[in-house]
């Protein structure tokens, strides 16, 4: 079977992704209400009882809104580093001690035949992380909410077959938008969010024969559009001499209001 995944929802209104192989089903973040997460899971023929655990990237509400409720409803273990636990405990309510599991940044943990590696990212949270998933020769990487693409993050993402990567905003739309300047400065900063241009710059370095697809994620509803994001990412890559055909590498959509289709990492 290998690795399959669906991005249930992506954006500032809520984030959740499901990754599974033949033995294990994991959720990354639970940033919507428990009711909405159940609805999105049902759309992809998954039940809460099938989930084996929830991996947390960081404590912002669009990533943990339904975390406590979902974990209690289905008696699920939650995996997060110690600083993230400290930052989110008051927000998620009481969690059974046996379901409160510390997974350090940089730790590699096996869930049956599904190997998971966390890696540190730059964002204005306590200790934010992304995740890589391995099954045999397959590798899926998920990296959103990162202010810039550091060398360490590039190293973590290298050799991925499929990636979920942030392309949060169009820089000019953000600069001209209605947000106050202090929020714009935060988003544009090294601990904010990755722009379309920055996503393209990163992909121009990460695009190898191994990388087949990248899902552009965590798009701002106020300062971005999917077609604009894909066009800007392509232009940014080509400006750096990175040319490709759709048959060789694809940019894929994510949505804030519906899940992506199941994607098998092994598929060309």
UniProtKB/TrEMBL annotation:
Catalysis performed (reactions): 3',5'-cyclic CMP + H2O = CMP + H(+); 3',5'-cyclic UMP + H2O = UMP + H(+)
One Pfam family hit: Lactamase_B_2
Domain named Metallo-beta-lactamase: residues: 13-218
Gene3D superfamilies the record matches: Ribonuclease Z/Hydroxyacylglutathione hydrolase-like
Database matches in PANTHER family: EXODEOXYRIBONUCLEASE WALJ (PTHR47619:SF1), METALLO-HYDROLASE YYCJ-RELATED (PTHR47619)
Reported function: Counteracts the endogenous Pycsar antiviral defense system. Phosphodiesterase that enables metal-dependent hydrolysis of host cyclic nucleotide Pycsar defense signals such as cCMP and cUMP.
Name of this chain's protein: MBL fold metallo-hydrolase
